[in-house]
Write a structure and sequence with these properties.
With 331 residues, the chain is α+β, with helices and mostly antiparallel strands. The chain contains 11 helices and 10 strands. The longest helix has 23 residues. It binds flavin mononucleotide (FMN).
Length: 331
């Protein structure tokens, strides 16, 4: 068991969704490829359709977000099944618990027909998706203030509100931060993907110290960042950085996560699109120049960033499934 954990650090055995593209329906708009968060979907010029692809030793670079399905205006793409790892350190339990009960009366892929059955909050929760294609339209200041206000009303341990918001609407600054952070991401990705003996050993040690950071999924997303030439926040007109106050009681990062969710959901309810970005806070600790640019200093640390803007395309063409998680009832 312990040996298995050490054996499968790089690209562990994984079951991926089966991505099917209907060539008769696909009109070649490439929205699915452009909104894919990883390097999984690539445009095949010869076949004139998107094709799922692999990365390094990963048979498919798909994280099963199913956004390709949600954005396809032609209903030409279907991702069947989920992502789960069957062996090693990143093994997931997801696949074993297929019996999680579905609470609605119609089948899972027909949720949109249930609009009348869902209340307003549920509609926002089920229709929201991470948006990675933004229009150039600037976001009105009133709307930014409104979503930040939703963040302020999030629950926090001891009502500490251990955070601060940094709102960057200067595209040049956002671009500069993206480029600087992307260089750090490339180094991480190359450490993982290019497997010299030394690099392999380094990743083994690092994955022991910080396991979650060395999963293959972020590596596939880092490849996408590289393909986009260093774009991390998707050229969104607004990037909100949530800084945690390290003096906050309990776990300030958890408080920040709840704030982020309030912001993301209220943004969706106002017609805005968002994408929570973990890559910027992962890279910033290695970049004193970015910390200086954003004026981040004690007692604050960058915890999470959110790209905000008007979606360029519809992200709610259909409801998509989501991996089932273990549930146990104790009565
Ligand atoms: C803490 C956190 C960090 C994330 N970091 C990134 C990121 O750096 N880049 C990205 O494209 N998406 C990022 N995401 C978005 C997830 O990929 C996305 O939520 C997930 O694939 C599910 O898709 P959905 O949000 O469309 O339902 C992040 C989400 C969370 C909660």
């Amino acid at each position: 068991m312990l040996l298995e954990k050490y054996r499968y650090v790089h690209f562990p055995p994984t079951i991926f969704p089966n991505i099917i593209v209907d060539p008769d329906k696909c009109k070649g708009c490439k929205i699915c490829v452009n909104s894919c968060p990883t390097s999984c979907l690539q445009w095949d010029e010869r076949k004139r359709k998107p094709v799922p692809t692999s990365l390094g030793g990963m048979s498919l670079a798909c994280i099963a977000c199913n956004n390709c399905e949600a954005v396809c205006p032609e209903n030409a793409i279907k991702a069947i099944g989920f992502y789960f790892v069957t062996k090693g350190r990143y093994k997931t339990d997801k696949g074993k618990y297929g019996n999680m009960s579905y609470p609605f009366n119609k089948s899972e892929d027909k949720l949109y027909e249930l609009d009348e059955e869902l209340n307003e909050v549920e509609k926002v929760i089920f229709k929201r998706r991470s948006v990675r294609l933004f229009s150039d339209k600037p976001v009105e200041k009133e709307k930014i203030n409104r979503i930040l206000e939703a963040g302020r009303f999030a629950p926090s341990a001891g009502n500490c509100q251990p955070y601060k918001f940094l709102v960057v609407t200067n595209r040049k600054i956002n671009e500069e931060i993206d480029i600087k952070c992307s260089r750090v991401l490339y180094k991480i990705k190359n450490l993982y993907v290019i497997r010299s003996k030394l690099k392999k050993t380094i990743v083994y040690i690092l994955s022991y110290i910080s396991p979650g950071k060395w999963d293959q999924r972020p590596i596939a997303a880092m490849e996408k960042v590289q393909q986009l030439g260093g774009v991390i926040t998707f050229k969104a007109p607004v990037v909100i950085h949530i800084l945690k106050d390290v003096r906050g009681i309990s776990e300030p990062d958890i408080d920040v996560g709840i704030v982020a969710q309030n912001i993301v959901l209220s943004a969706h309810s106002l017609g805005l699109g968002t994408c929570i970005i973990g890559f910027i806070p992962s890279a910033v600790p290695f970049l004193p120049s970015v910390k200086k640019l954003l004026g981040i200093k004690y007692p604050y640390k960058l915890s999470l960033s959110i790209a905000v803007g008007y979606p360029k395309v519809r992200y709610d063409n259909r409801y998509v499934s989501r991996g089932k998680i273990p549930i146990e009832y104790i009565s």
